[in-house]
Amino acid sequence: MTYAIAEAAHRSGLSIDTLRYYERIQLIDPPARDSGGRRAYTDEDLVWLVFLTKLRTTGMPIRMMREYARLRHQGVASAGRRKQILVQQRTEVLGRIAELNSCLDVLNYKIANYEQCERDLEEQAPGRLAEASA
């Protein structure tokens, strides 16, 4: 099945401009053209776009995405380097997750502290908190 650029953009969650940009910087191969000369994306193209979106979401720089895209055309011969790129990105993602978990711990601590403050206020003046919020 093939999709016009608007449908490919909708299905991939990317904008039409982003699809054209990805084509221009060679992240995606130029799609086939229909009889009217319009881009015709395949299901395989959409799978690749989803993967690129995942890489981008992990924070992978465009230059690394371009290297990965270039390497995939070499087939199995480039599997080692492609794996290395993904392992490196996974390490960076795990580091960011750890940092975010640390931030989450701080937020949870502060929220629990404020909840305790609210309980203490309620115990000191039962009903006053409810009246103030009414």
TrEMBL record:
Q: Which GO terms describe its molecular function?
A: DNA binding; DNA-binding transcription factor activity
Q: Indicate yes or no for the key word DNA-binding.
A: yes
Pfam family for this entry, one: MerR_1
Name the keywords, alphabetized: DNA-binding
HTH merR-type domain residues: 2-71
PANTHER family cross-referenced by the UniProt entry:
HTH-TYPE TRANSCRIPTIONAL REGULATOR ADHR, REDOX-CYCLING DRUG-SENSING TRANSCRIPTIONAL ACTIVATOR SOXR
The protein here is known as MerR family transcriptional regulator
Query: Source species, please?
Result: Actinophytocola xanthii
